[in-house]
Design a protein that fits this description.
With about 200 residues, this protein is mostly helical.
Length: about 200
C-alpha cells in the first residue's frame, strides 16, 4: 500500500515537473529566457513560488530541463528515422539526414533564435553542445555500430567526428539557409569518408 502511494506521488511529481518545463519553454518563446521569473512560471502552472522550489532549485535548473526537453524531441525523431531507414542504403541515409537536419533546425529555430535575440548566447551554445553530444551518442550506439559490423571496418573517434559534423552542419545551414542539399550531403559524406560506399 505504501509503495503504491509513493509511486502515485512520484507520478504526480513528474507531471508537475513536466508542466513547469513546458511553461518555462512557452514563456521563453514569448519573452526570452532572461526575462522569465520564477513567479511567471509558477503563475502559468498555477502553483506558488514555494511549491516551484520543491521541483527546481532555481531558474538555471529549469533552463537545463528545458534544453533537455527540446533535445529529447530531437532524439525521438532520430529514433523514428533509425527504425524506418533502409539498412545498407547509405545514399538514402545521407539524403534523410540532410532533410532531418533541416527540419530539426526549422522546428527548434524559434527556440534557438529567441535565446540568441534575448542575449542568452551562452545558453544557446550550451543547447547546441548538449544536442550535438546526445545526437552523437545516439548515432554511435546505433547506426555507426551497424555500419562497422556490416562493412567490417573498425571506426575510431566516432563520437568526436559526429559531434564536429553536427555542430558544423548546424552552423553551415543556419548561416547559409539556401545552401543546396547536395553540398550538405557531400560535406557529410566526405567528413565520414563514405564516398566509396555510395
Amino acid at each position: 500500500m505504501a509503495e503504491t502511494a509513493r509511486t502515485t506521488m512520484s507520478t504526480i511529481g513528474d507531471a508537475r515537473r513536466a508542466q513547469i518545463v513546458q511553461a518555462a519553454r512557452t514563456i521563453c518563446l514569448e519573452k526570452g529566457f532572461s526575462k522569465i521569473t520564477i513567479s511567471d512560471i509558477a503563475e502559468r502552472v498555477g502553483m506558488t513560488r514555494s511549491l516551484f522550489y520543491h521541483y527546481f532549485q532555481d531558474k538555471n535548473q529549469v533552463a537545463d530541463a528545458v534544453l533537455d526537453d527540446v533535445i529529447n524531441e530531437v532524439i525521438a525523431r532520430l529514433e523514428e528515422w533509425n527504425e524506418h531507414r533502409e539498412t545498407g542504403n547509405i545514399s538514402k541515409a545521407l539524403d534523410d539526414v540532410v532533410r532531418l537536419t533541416r527540419s530539426l533546425i526549422a522546428d527548434e529555430g524559434p527556440f534557438s533564435q529567441r535565446l540568441i535575440e534575448d542575449g542568452n548566447a551562452g545558453l544557446y551554445l550550451k543547447f547546441i553542445d548538449r544536442a550535438a553530444d546526445r545526437i552523437s551518442d545516439y548515432l554511435c550506439s546505433s547506426t555507426v555500430r551497424e555500419f562497422e559490423q556490416r562493412h567490417g571496418m573498425p571506426i575510431t573517434n566516432e563520437h568526436e567526428t559526429f559531434y564536429t559534423l553536427i555542430v558544423g552542419l548546424i552552423s553551415l545551414i543556419r548561416l547559409h539557409p539556401d545552401i543546396d542539399d547536395a553540398i550538405v550531403r557531400q560535406v557529410a559524406a566526405q567528413t565520414l569518408h563514405l564516398d566509396e560506399y555510395l
